[in-house]
Every structure is written in structure tokens, then in C-alpha cells.
Amino acid sequence: MIRVEKLHKTFGTGTRARPVLHDVDLTIAQGTIGAVVGPSGAGKSTLARCVNLLERPTSGRVRVAGTDVTDLPERELRDARRAIGTVFQSANLLRRRTAAQNVAMPLRYLGVTAREEKRRVAELLERVGLADRAADYPAQLSGGQRQRVGIARALALRPKVLLSDEATSGLDPAATRSVLALLRELTTDLDLAILLITHEMEVVREVADTAALLREGRVVESGPVRQLVADPHSALGNALLPDRPVSRDRRGLGTWRLTYQGHAVPTDWLTRLGADHGLDVHLLSATVEEIAGRAAGRATVAVGHDRAEELTAALGGWGIHAEPLPEPPSPVPADEPAAPGPASETTAETVEEAVV
Ligand SMILES: Nc1ncnc2c1ncn2[C@@H]1O[C@H](COP(=O)(O)OP(=O)(O)O)[C@@H](O)[C@H]1O
Ligand SMILES: [Mg+2]
Fold it and tell me: Which domains does the chain possess?
């Protein structure tokens, strides 16, 4: 378990004090992947460095695998760090060492026998699917393979938690997917708790169990990914599953935002609204993704004001949540400045811009 409580981190002192993290709470259970997302400069890496003990928190507590590591004296820190594996963006492999030698690095400090080292390195490379590349140098490996070597090295000391700071940034989509699939597999097989730092929503959607949005050093939203995407008010949920309604003439129509998540929702709900309920529904946008093995969707539809009750009743019967959206602002003549939209109505674009 990774548990961060009321974490504050300020760099520098006095007039040069620069607060970076404010009152951050975060829990990641064993066997799960917790993502932390946020724009560049939000404090994500600083948070990771406070968890892997490269930085001391200014105040608050950090617990890793049952140990409160906040105030450990220097010599005990070294042992505590062994319980934490870290994978960085560029894997940080030593260029003049083979894949096997890179993986062996952490074992060297432990002074294991040559025989034991050989056995363990072979096992780790096998674990990440690179048994046949042991003798290759980093330059001979693809970006995804280098990250796998980095992961094998991070696992060398049998950590209970793993931190991944932008480990898939810069990888192509196929390599990203394979690294994420490996992390998912390791989480389950080794019962790890993984803190996954990323600025990519696809990454969160693909593997995370929980997610927290960090903005200017504060957690502004957090929760299980399944719940976030099913919550019509969640900015993070909307960024994970963006829903961008097309603008069109909606006179006489009420607009509804729909959110759903789970098996109970029929895939042909839109057709059935027409066929079974006689509702003339205009589909303005829809997006469906598989999240944690289940379909999750967001859609915006418009229907005649007089049919609103029938619409919500039909949708409710399938477990689709429907909420009315405010009327779109009436068109503004071109020479007048457009009024800003209602404050409560955060568009997917602004959320994504803020998040990514
Ligand atoms: N050692 C440091 N000293 C002073 N400021 C730092 C230090 N490390 C990070 N910062 C500042 O903290 C803020 C958050 O940085 P970082 O944690 O790297 O954000 P992220 O990983 O979300 O992009 C940035 O404004 C950065 O300049
Ligand atoms: Mg960073």
C-alpha cells in the first residue's frame, strides 16, 4: 500500500520558498494501479520523489508497504528504498552495459553470489519477455524493450510498490500498450501497488484502477476510474471519456447528457428509444470505451421538450443516467464579443487543455 497523507512540499526557504504540493492525500492498495494525472508543472514528479524518498516532505506522512518512511534516518532510508522500484521516462539504462548487466545493477549492491545473480537476472528478463535479448546493449533495443529492461531492473529487489513516472511517454502506441499490459500483469502476479504518473488520458483509461487529478500541487479530483467516468459532473471523468457535442439547431429540443457504465446497458439503446418508445432522439455525440473490462459511455442527445419524462424513464430502466444540459447560448452577432458560457459547464476541451 502506498499512503500519502496531508503531504506538503516546499522548495527553498524564506523569500525563495516555493510551495509545490499542498495537502495531498493518496492511497494505492496492493494489487492496484493508481494514476496521477495533471498538466506539466503540477507537481507529479515531486510527489513521486517524495514517495520514493528522493525528496523529504515538508510536512505530512508517507507510508510504503506498511512502513512510515517520513522520518527515517538516512541509513534506514536505504533499506526502505529497496521496497520501492522506480521506472523513469527514458529507462535510464547504462549504455555500455548489456540488458542483463543493467538488470543486475541493484543486485550488485546486495552482494549476492554470481550464481544467484545469474539466476535472478534470467528470471527477471523472462518475466518481462526479453529472455532472448540478455546480451543486447540498450542501443540494440526498441524504446519499448528498453522500458521493459527498466522494469526488470526496478523489480530486481522484489519491491512491494512500483513508481512509474511517464514511463510510456515517447513510446509509440503499440509499445505503450505492451508496456501497460506488462504493468497490469505484474500488478496482479506480484501483488504490487503501482503509482503511475502520466499526462496521457489513454494510459489511465487503459490500465488504472483509480485516478487523481493534480493541479497546481493539489488533488482536485480523485476516485475509482469506473466511478469517475460514470459521473456526469466529473471533469476528470469527462477528460477520460471526452464527449464533444456537435453544435446544431436545437430549437424546441431539450439536450441531455447521458453517462453509463456496466453490462446492463443494451448496445442498441439508441435504436430502441425509437423502436420501443417512439422517441425521436437526435444523437449529438457519443463515445464508448472499455474501462476495467466493462463498457463505459457518454453521449449527448436532444429530444422534444414534451418527451423528456419518457426519455429519462426509458434510459433509467437500462441504468443510463440522464441530466438536462443548459440551453446553448443564443447566437451572438459577429461584431459583439461572445459571452462566456455558464461557469458550471466545463467543456471537454478546456478540461483536456488543463489536464494534458
Ligand atoms: N528541486 C526543485 N527545486 C525547486 N523547484 C522545483 C524542484 N523540483 C521541482 N520544482 C518545481 O516544482 C514544480 C512541479 O514540478 P514537477 O513535480 O516536476 O511537475 P510535473 O512532474 O507535474 O511536471 C515546478 O514548478 C518545478 O519547477
Ligand atoms: Mg514530471
Answer: 2-229 (3.40.50.300), 235-330+347-355 (3.30.70.260)
